[in-house]
Every structure is written in structure tokens, then in C-alpha cells.
Design a protein that fits this description.
elongated, about 75% helix, mainly alpha, single chain, 11 helices
Length: about 300
């Protein structure tokens, strides 16, 4: 009897796994070539960043003064910088900070936007009015100028960069979340939950939020490329993750700029890493958005 139940459970699990695999293959089969290419490039970048100790041939923060400004070679694939540090190793390790910090910014920004948008849209009235006027003031300042001002005030370090970027970028997303909540809260299943006596907290957590989360995930994924570029821009201005941490934007700033005219590889390879990352993120997640949301399908390709 027990063996029959176990066999039946295993059959159900295998059938569900096969169904998920078929849906995944069908989903990937509908993705355009540009989306697949972006996904492959992104997979390589993320994989190399996660396996940085295995991929990087040298310590990213240890230089050899005898190898200062060395051209690309078999020992140093992307050459060395003015301190004799291996540029390839610094780019590989820099992916951890550039991609990891960008993902943290998007996650925190999406959480803030979801909380603000859901509370504002669900309760409405004076609460909505106060929150939306605050969001208006929030969005009145150009996001990048606000980033520069706040980070200059607080000081450039990893925690400050993540928190400030998250707050600065959450305003626009909260507006979209609020618009979705205004529609969802009038749905019949929400009205039924009110009728049977469900509290506001329960309705928000179990009825409103699950309907908003897919939209938030799509918005956050589309913003990820812009966050990588903004983080690199702050690093270039000296307001990002401070040296000697290998971050792509900071690799293009400081004393490095003094050597770029004679050592072309110091600017080419970090810039190429930023370009490929932003391009792959935009290509892949734009294609995913088009497939998930039928209203957006084909707009990116046309």
C-alpha cells in the first residue's frame, strides 16, 4: 500500500516536472534571437562573477610594479593598470559589485515602491493625497542629480550608494503600482473578502499584493540595466564604491584617466563590460516583458 502511494507521488512529481520543462521550452522558443543572445551574454557575465576566484588568474587588488601599464598578453589578458594590477581580474571581480549592488538597488527600490503604491492606492482619501504630494516632490528632482547630492552629503560607500539609489528610483515605480492597486481593489474577489470580514492587512497581503507582484517584477527587471549604468556613472564621478574595490565605473576614473591616452586597454575593457552588461539586460528582460505582457508583445521589436 505504502509503495503504491510513493510510486503514485513520484509519477505526479515527474509529470509536473515534465510540464514545467515543456512550458519553459515553449517560453524560450517564443523568445526572439536578440533576447536569447542577451540571455547567453548575461549568463556568462553572472557565471564569471560568481566563479571569480576560479576565473580570475590574479588577485584584483595586488599589483606588480614591474608590470605597470603592461599591454594585453598571455599573462595579462586585458593588460595591467598604473599600479600593475591585472585588468581582467579586476573586471571579473568587479562584476560581483556592479551586478550585486545593482540587484540590491532594484530589490530595495521595488520593495519601497510596492509598499508606498499599495498603501496609497488601497486606502485612498487623505492618505493617498498626502502620499502622492510627497511622491510629486520626490519626483520633482532629477534622479541622478539627487543621487549626486545625497551621496556627496552622506559619503561614498556601498551601503549609502544602495540605499540612496533605491530611494531615488522608487518614486516612478510607486505611481505605476498605485494605478494597478486602484483597479485591483475594485475586483469582485476583493469585495467578497471585505464582505466576509477580512481585515485591511489581510486583504493587502493575500489579495492585493499577489496581483501586483508580477507587475513589480517586470518593472524592476526592465530597470536593472539603467541601474547598472547609473552605478557605473557614480563610480566614474568618484561617488560610487570607493577604491581599491574593483568596480567598473571607478576603474575609469581617478588616476586611470591620466594613462588612457597611451594605455587604450584601461578604458576599453571596463567600458566594454558595462556596455555588454547593460545591453544584455535590456535585450533579455525586454523580450521577457513582451512575452509575459500581451499588451507589450512585439512593441520592442517593432
Amino acid at each position: 500500500m505504502t509503495s503504491g502511494v510513493i510510486a503514485s507521488s513520484e509519477s505526479v512529481w515527474e509529470a509536473q516536472s515534465c510540464g514545467r520543462a515543456r512550458r519553459l521550452r515553449r517560453f524560450l522558443g517564443q523568445m526572439p534571437v536578440t533576447g536569447v543572445a542577451g540571455g547567453v551574454i548575461l549568463l556568462v557575465l553572472v557565471g564569471s562573477a560568481l566563479a571569480a576566484p576560479l576565473v580570475a588568474p590574479h588577485d584584483p587588488n595586488v599589483g606588480d610594479t614591474a608590470q605597470r601599464i603592461a599591454k594585453p598578453s598571455a599573462d595579462h589578458l586585458f593588460g595591467t593598470d598604473q599600479l600593475g594590477r591585472d585588468v581582467f581580474s579586476r573586471i571579473v571581480y568587479g562584476g560581483r559589485y556592479s551586478l550585486g549592488a545593482s540587484l540590491a538597488v532594484v530589490a530595495l527600490s521595488a520593495s519601497i515602491a510596492t509598499a508606498v503604491g499599495v498603501i496609497s492606492g488601497y486606502f485612498g482619501g487623505k492618505i493617498d493625497l498626502v502620499i502622492q504630494r510627497f511622491v510629486d516632490a520626490w519626483m520633482a528632482f532629477p534622479a541622478f542629480l539627487l543621487l549626486i547630492a545625497l551621496i556627496s552629503l552622506l559619503g561614498p560607500n556601498l551601503t549609502n550608494v544602495i540605499v540612496v539609489m533605491s530611494i531615488a528610483m522608487a518614486g516612478g515605480m510607486s505611481r505605476i503600482v498605485r494605478s494597478s492597486v486602484l483597479v485591483v481593489k475594485e475586483a469582485p474577489f476583493v469585495e467578497m473578502a471585505r464582505v466576509i470580514g477580512a481585515s485591511d492587512t489581510r486583504i493587502i497581503l493575500f489579495h492585493i499584493s499577489p496581483q501586483v507582484v508580477p507587475l513589480v517584477l517586470v518593472l524592476a527587471s526592465v530597470q536593472l540595466g539603467g541601474v547598472v549604468l547609473a552605478l557605473a556613472s557614480l563610480g566614474f564621478l568618484g561617488l560610487g564604491i570607493p577604491p581599491p574595490t574593483p568596480e567598473w565605473g571607478s576603474m575609469l576614473s581617478g588616476r586611470t584617466r591620466d594613462f588612457m591616452y597611451t594605455a587604450w586597454w584601461l578604458g576599453l575593457f571596463p567600458g566594454l563590460a558595462i556596455t555588454l552588461t547593460v545591453l544584455s539586460l535590456n535585450l533579455f528582460f525586454d523580450s521577457v516583458r513582451d512575452l509575459i505582457d500581451p499588451r507589450m508583445r512585439g512593441t520592442g521589436r517593432n
